[in-house]
Amino acid sequence: MNKSLFTGILLSALIMLAAIVSFAWTPFDHTSLNIPNKLQAPNGTHWLGTDHFGRDMFSMIMVGARTSITVAFVAVGIGLGLGVPLGLWATARQGGWTDEIIMRGNDLIFAFPSLVIAILITAVFGPGAVNAIIAIGIFNIPVFARVTRGGALQLWTREFILAARVAGKGAIRISIEHILPNLANLLIVQATIQFSLGILAEAALSYVGLGAQPPTPSWGRMLADAQTLVSIAPHMALVPGFSIILTVLGLNLLGDGLRDLLDPKLQQVQK
After folding, report:
1. pLDDT at residue number 95
2. CB 11 within 8 A of CB 2
3. Among the four given CATH numbers 3.10.450.50, 3.40.50.970, 3.80.10.10, 1.10.3720.10, the one describing domain 3-23+32-270
4. pLDDT confidence band for 269 (50 / 70 / 90)
5. Contact 15, 65 (CB under 8 A)
6. CA–CA–CA angle 158, 182, 93 (5° rounding)
7. Nearest CA-CA partner of 59 in 237, 216, 231, 230
8. Which residues contact 184 (CB under 8 A, 6 or more apart)?
């Protein structure tokens, strides 16, 4: 196991563990206000300090990890669930108007960043974690569609695909039985990358008030709350900021490590 993969697994596992444990236990109630103890620096009681309402920062970070991971995970699932079939369908039709419509639709979505899409959705349905999931998920669809289409186009010229066509298998059956399994490694790596981008997107949406709403903690909103108190309580910005950095770093290292591990061409170069 290379260093990038090991470090990525370690950092990602720590964040995942914090999120899972938060369902059953946190040091303090993350919704409990304790004004007399507000803006405390990290100490023996509050390991990461308290915020401007006296809430325990460590507890909020744990629950915030759960929020960010849930939003990013579901958004990536939407991208995989819709983008991969679209990419396979575009290549299975062997070009033509179907491929053209799907790709131009992807270009249209790419023209609007997830933040802009979230603003549009929020204007209609109001802010919230569900709308953030929809916005990020919609942006993930063309990403996976393009990755799937690009990988599938290369596979359609391979000998084993030609043999399957000679055996009488249809395009849809070949896509499911032969193309998709050979794209699994590529899609796993891309999903890891999009997961880290989903964490960043969720934090950005929460920062501008379009993500998870109070009292649910969110790393992005914690940064927004801290921006006017940096000189008084710098830990309020540093704690969620480093949480985002470590999570994204861990997932990116995990993606790089998986790419090196699963790509036979890279393995040959390393040897």
Report:
1. 66
2. no
3. 1.10.3720.10
4. very low
5. yes
6. 65
7. 216
8. none
